[in-house]
Amino acid sequence: MIQKSAATHIRNFTVQLSPTPRGARLARLLATEQLRAWQLPLDPARQIIAELATNAATHSRIPGRDFRLTLYVVGDTLRIEVTDTCGDREPRLQVPDVDAESGRGLVLVEALAEKWGVAHGPRPRKTVWAELSVGEV
């Protein structure tokens, strides 16, 4: 018996942005339009992208160095990656004080993503990634 396997179609989108509040906002807006073009659900991906991009713009800001947003769709999984040039600054999941005005980004990513993590390299880079199931595409 001969079995045929469907070739896996991989979709991807990458953009390099300045590590500023404007760059983080632009990451969310461009990603939203790309998800729409791929006819994928916007949420919770849009929220995860906003949190990871904001973290890169806030905590990994080095003058002259940008951050990169990459989206991949492989099968039924959307992978969101935000790469910056502060590999020595490990993101930490911590629950902020109730009255804190910030510090909930990775708590939200943990709650919304099916899985997430950090990949290092090449030096001085690190990539914070999250994955979501988007159903059959």
Gyration radius, to the nearest Å?
16 Å
Strands in their spatial order, largest beta sheet: 1-2-3-5-4
H and E string: EHHEEHEE
Mean pLDDT: 87
Helix content: 25-40%
- Number of helical stretches of at least 4 residues: 3
Share in β-strands = 25-35%
Shape call = globular
Number of separate strands: 5
Distance between the termini: 28 Å
Low-confidence stretches: 1-5
Describe the structure.
The chain is of the alpha+beta class and 137 residues long. The protein has helices spanning 21-37, 45-59, 105-112, and strands spanning 10-17, 67-74, 77-84, 115-120, 126-133. It has a five-stranded antiparallel sheet with strand order 1-2-3-5-4, with helices on one face. The longest helix is centred in the first third of the chain and has 17 residues, at 21-37. It starts with 9 loop residues before the first strand and ends with a strand.
Top keywords for this entry?
alpha+beta; 5-stranded antiparallel sheet; 3 helices; 29% helix
Q: Which SSEs are present, and which pair or pack?
A:
Blueprint: E1 10-17, H1 21-37, H2 45-59, E2 67-74, E3 77-84, H3 105-112, E4 115-120, E5 126-133
Antiparallel strand pairs: 1-2, 2-3, 3-5, 4-5
Helix pairs in contact: 1-2, 2-3
Tell me briefly what this model is.
Helices cover 29% and strands 28% of the residues.
